[in-house]
Write a structure and sequence with these properties.
The structure holds two protein chains of two kinds.
Chain A (H helix, E strand, L loop, with lengths): L5 E4 L3 H5 L2 H13 L3 E3 L9 H6 L2 H16 L7 E4 L2 H10 L10 E3 H8 L8 E8 L3 H5 L6 H7 L2 E5 L14 H5 L1 H17 L4 E4 L2 H13 L5 E4 H5 L3
Parallel strand pairs in A: 1-2, 1-3, 3-4, 5-6, 5-7, 7-8
Helix pairs in contact in A: 10-11
Chain B lengths: L1 H8 L2 H21 L8 H17 L1 H14 L3 E5 L2 H15 L3 E4 L3 H5 L2 H6 L4 E4 L2 H9 L15 H12 L7 H18 L2 E4 L3 E3 L4 E6 L3 H7 L3 E7 L3 E2 L5 H13 L6 E5 L13 E7 L23 H5 L3 H4 L10 H12 L1 H4 L11 H5 L6 H14 L5 H14 L1 H9 L4 H6 L13 H17 L1
Classes of the chains: A alpha/beta, B alpha/beta.
Chain lengths: ~240, ~450
């Protein structure tokens, strides 16, 4: 039933702890395409929180953990798939800044289009959704049309673009802790644009953006759901 | 600082003014550099980056060449370390020539050294002639934006300012306000003794000073008075006149979405025999004011590539929330966030590199491809290194230990109510942690699968 080879998941600490459903959905989609899915259980984090906060030594420690985990049992020879643009970019673009040589990693939608070469994964989702471009997926990995093509093949789904899909959600890791007024101001602008579309869900590639948006949507009493792309693609 | 940011964010009128004005500039920029309007845009950015890199890495050479060419055309070049030296030069010259009135066109470099204030202390009147700058001079405010200095002022604000400061009847129509300013300023141009302008580019191989503007006030400032003084940062030098073909295509588009600004003036010395206009005396003041400090670091040096187009401000979601006056220096937005700490140190500006979500919108629109997020990160590392025992440093030590020890991580992740784990995640508006982590659910799922296969 399989036969397309093995993929290893790097689910990221945020998905592990806060959005496990996105990770499971990603595994479901990949298995549905015929991949053997492995999850190296010693994995933790890519080191991005420390790297972006200006603590390269701490980031490097954690990045080493990532490398060791994926080197063990030859997972680095697999396709490593990540449900996050920013964690993917951390590994592919910024491990080098820490003098580390990373294995090839794929952001989930990139993997589907560039490796698995599918647009239609057989999903069905009834409703109108809007798509948020996560900053690092967009500007570091140059992912723009891919997720939209995948959403375009989902039966029952209508994609309605918001006015400012490329504007930051306001999260930015420690930024949201250190400058809550600015961060929340940015989020308010973003959710106004989301709500304006009338969509029932906002879809993104990064769980951290979704978390930021979800908090603000709930606080303001909006019923718009936040969904990871994998969750939409796993819907039947 | 904090309270002012809160005030700005909570002021709906100001928020709308900032968001609308920057939004308009942002949209116009992206139209003007789109694949139909300027197919070679990315190639031009690469060229501009290489040219700036080359110019900055050979700054001494090109400054010497520029100065020699200016002097060959009968101008004089004055190197100044700081604002005091600039003011001393201008004041000395004004005294020698008996000058009383200066007209000035828009220049961030002179804002940087508070030139007007320094001159006013010595009873030398210095009038801003760019409309936005003029409004701000009357209001006693510093520029809100590198390109659109009075971006935060509505026409009603301008009506208030004109009525109060010029003693005229209240006028709310923009055209009439403009005509009023024009009448006042025209008189100033005609009676001014000295004109001061900035420079967008200093061309080494020809000694030309290039000034880009839309209102014509810079051209008047440099041609009507008998004396023209250019005040420019040393980083403005570019090697060759032909390089302007790259920069001029990028500058106005990035700033306002115009293919070219309304006026592009090239001046290279005083009026020559037989010429009908131009000044009798021509001076170029080349200002360091801390710029050479930035040359040392090969990564952060790129901060000096900036051509002051303001595109990063319009693209920046942080600038668009907090506006220009919450930045500690006249350079605001992403470029301000990287140069202010390097010029003024971390005690005043150390917070700036952290006030960013690292979304990267600034780097994406920069016409000379300054890697602003990269420089922000480098500065974050430096700021942290300067306070080695902060609580944050310790927290990241603990965090790194946990993330390096999967067992510790797994133990914490199983703790109910999992508050300890929550505190380790880089998040604030956290929804409650999922009842079970992915790894727990995965283990259960694998077990169920095995049971199915076993059966």
């Amino acid at each position: 039933m399989s036969g397309r080879g093995r993929v290893s998941l790097f689910v990221t600490c945020v998905v592990d702890q806060l959005f496990p459903s996105a990770g499971l959905a990603m595994a479901d989609v990949l298995e549905g395409l015929g991949y053997d899915v492995a999850f190296p259980p010693q994995q933790t984090c890519c080191g991005q929180p420390a790297f972006n906060s200006g603590y390269p030594n701490q980031a490097r420690e954690v990045a080493l953990q990532f490398l060791e985990v994926f080197r063990a049992a030859g997972h680095d020879a697999d396709h490593i798939v990540v449900p996050s643009g920013s964690c993917t970019a951390m590994i592919s673009h910024h491990f080098a800044d820490l003098n580390l040589n990373p294995p090839r990693v794929w952001e989930f939608s990139q993997f589907l289009l560039e490796v698995a070469r599918v647009e239609d994964v057989g999903a069905r989702f009834d409703g109108v959704v809007t798509f948020h471009d996560s900053c690092h997926a967009l500007r570091e990995l140059h992912i723009k049309q891919g997720p939209r093509r995948l959403l375009g093949k989902v039966r029952g789904l209508t994609l309605k673009e918001m006015s400012i899909p490329e504007e930051c959600c306001g999260f930015g890791g420690m930024f949201s802790v250190k400058f809550p007024e600015i961060s929340q101001g940015m989020t308010r602008t973003k959710i106004a644009s989301i709500v304006e579309t009338g969509a029932s869900a906002v879809v993104a590639l990064d769980a951290s953006c979704l978390m930021q948006l979800q908090g603000a949507l709930r606080r303001d009493g909006h019923s718009v759901r936040t969904m990871h792309l994998a969750e939409v693609l796993a819907s039947r | 600082m904090e309270t002012n940011i809160q005030q700005t964010v909570a002021d709906p009128k100001l928020q709308l003014a900032i968001y609308t004005a920057t939004g308009r500039l942002k949209d116009k920029r992206s139209e003007s550099v789109g694949p139909d309007a300027l197919p070679q845009y990315q190639e031009l950015r690469n060229r501009a980056n290489l040219l700036k890199r080359h110019a900055i890495e050979n700054l001494d050479l090109y400054l010497e060449q520029f100065a020699a060419n200016v002097e060959a055309h009968g101008g004089k070049v004055i190197f100044c370390d700081d604002g005091t030296q600039v003011a001393d030069f201008v004041l000395g010259l004004a005294k020698e020539r008996g000058a009383r009135l200066i007209v000035k066109s828009k220049s961030m470099t002179t804002e940087e050294i508070d030139l007007n204030e320094r001159l006013e202390h010595h009873q030398l009147e210095s009038v801003e002639t760019d409309l936005g700058e003029y409004i701000l001079q009357l209001a006693h405010e510093r520029p809100y934006h590198i390109v659109a200095p009075a971006l935060h002022k509505t026409r009603y604000d301008v009506a208030d300012i004109f009525t109060r400061r010029l003693g005229v009847e209240r006028e709310e129509a923009i055209e009439k306000q403009t005509m009023l300013a024009r009448r006042v300023l025209r008189e100033k141009f005609l009676s001014a003794d000295i004109g001061i302008t900035g420079a967008n580019f200093l061309v080494a191989d020809s000694g030309a000073v290039v000034v880009v503007e839309n209102e014509g006030n810079a051209r008047l400032s440099m041609s009507v008075p008998k004396i023209h003084i250019v005040i420019a940062g040393i980083e403005k030098v570019i090697p060759r006149a032909q390089d302007l073909a790259v920069f001029l295509k990028l500058l106005a588009r990035s700033a306002t979405g115009q293919p070219l600004s309304v006026y592009t003036s090239f001046v290279s010395g005083p009026r020559r025999p037989g010429e009908i206009d131009g000044p009798d005396e021509f001076y170029v003041v080349l200002l360091d004011n801390g710029r050479t400090k930035l040359l040392a670091d090969p990564e952060k040096r790129q901060s000096l590539f900036c051509i002051r187009c303001g595109a990063c401000l319009n693209a920046c979601p942080v600038y668009r929330k907090i506006g220009g006056h919450n930045y500690p220096w006249i350079y605001s937005g992403p470029i301000g966030a990287i140069i202010t700490p390097q010029f003024h140190g971390f005690s005043e500006a150390g917070w700036l590199p952290f006030a960013s979500s690292l979304c990267g919108a600034c780097g994406e629109v920069c016409p000379v491809k300054i890697e602003i997020p990269k420089v922000l990160l480098a500065l974050r590392r430096e700021v942290n290194a300067a306070k080695p025992k902060s609580w944050e440093y310790r927290a990241f030590q603990v965090w790194a230990w946990v993330m390096r020890h999967p067992r510790g991580y797994q133990f914490l992740s199983r703790l109910a109510p999992r508050g300890a784990m929550q505190s380790l995640l880089p998040v604030r508006n956290v929804p409650p942690l999922a009842p079970k982590s992915f790894r727990q659910l995965w283990a259960e799922r694998e077990k169920a699968k095995q049971a199915r296969h076993g059966a």
